[in-house]
Amino acid sequence: MKLTRIGPVGAERPAVLTLDGQAYDLSQLTSDINGAFLADHGVERVRDALIAGHLRPIDIAEHRVGAPVARPGKVVCVGLNYRDHAEETGAEVPIWPFVFLKAPYTVIGSNDKVLVPRGSVKTDYEVEPAVVIGATASYLDSPDDVAAVVAGYAVSHDVSEREFQLEYSGQWDLGKSCATFNPLGPWLVPASDVDVSALEPTLLVNGDVRQRGSTKEMVFDPAYLVWYLSQYMVLEPGDVINTGTRPVSRSAAPTPHTCGRGTWSRCRSTGWARSARRWGRRDGRVRRAAWGRHRRGIGNRPGRGAAAGGAGRAGRGIRP
């Protein structure tokens, strides 16, 4: 089964799809698919209701599909988690996960329009499997304990603005947390229904394959990542973990950082999830005044001179 949320932004209704493609309304079980629902054994209750025949069939064909989980408390991301991605950036394969955060408001529906921010010239795209947390996790004893706290998995589209990320700050927040920068879904697949060791996330842009990989190539598998993160932060129900991506193929993209109005991107993973979205630009004039300081050499730009020393990996131009 697959959990999803349908309807206008801010008014989504919870639903479930079965393997035969039939959708059922979950409103009698919950008002939304969120952290509270997942923490209250929501996935198990949906499965029991399906088996018992207690759910009302609905038609969702003409409805917008929202993110499969309501706004998460946090979106935790892992960079350089594929060996060939580390090699692409010129970095060593990490000995521990490289972690950063995205703002929760970046999460949108899988088919919603991605808005390229004002002044952007390097908006970029990546597909990755996402873990959705179903129970509070803090100081887990080992990766063997992770199954009890994971609700399921979804396809995540990690969008970045590379100039904002790598050239305007010693941190990555500016280029990672622009509005609409994390399409998610279209559905949440329960952990018991997924062989996470054999997923093949794929991304196409205007019909050209830009990424295709396998979770078998991961440096740190999802169970290890959840265990590791629980040693440093409290993972709460509804939180999303983007588990990393393989390199983007540039052979089909002579000008790779030009996503904008008219661009279509599609993400999929091993047949159980796929999505498509349009790209557009925010209205209004481009504002460059604040950024001009950097171009005149005032202020620190990561990766240049003394500023690089305090910028860590970001200062060396490594991208997730």
Number of helices: 8
Beta-strand content = 25-35%
Rg over CA atoms, rounded to whole Å, is: 20 Å
The CATH architecture of the largest domain can be given as Alpha-Beta Complex
Helical coverage, percent range: 10-25%
Domain tally: 2
Main CATH class of the largest domain:
Alpha Beta
Sum up the overall morphology in one term.
globular
Number-wise, the strands total 19
Could you tell me the mean pLDDT?
82
Strand order of the largest sheet: 6-5-17-10-11-14
CATH homolog superfamily of the largest domain: Fumarylacetoacetase-like, C-terminal domain
CATH fold naming of the largest domain = Fumarylacetoacetate hydrolase, domain 2
Overview of the molecule:
This protein is α+β, with helices and mostly antiparallel strands. The chain folds into 2 domains: 2-58, no CATH class; 75-294, Fumarylacetoacetate hydrolase, domain 2 (Alpha-Beta Complex). The chain contains 8 helices and 19 strands. The chain has helices at residues 35-39, 42-52, 83-89, 162-167, 173-176, 222-230, 289-295, 312-315, and strands spanning 2-6, 13-17, 23-25, 56-58, 75-79, 98-102, 107-109, 114-116, 123-124, 127-133, 150-157, 160-161, 182-184, 189-190, 201-205, 208-212, 240-242, 264-269, 273-281. The longest helix has 11 residues, at 42-52. The radius of gyration is 20 Å and the shape is globular. It starts with a strand and ends in a 5-residue tail after the last helix.
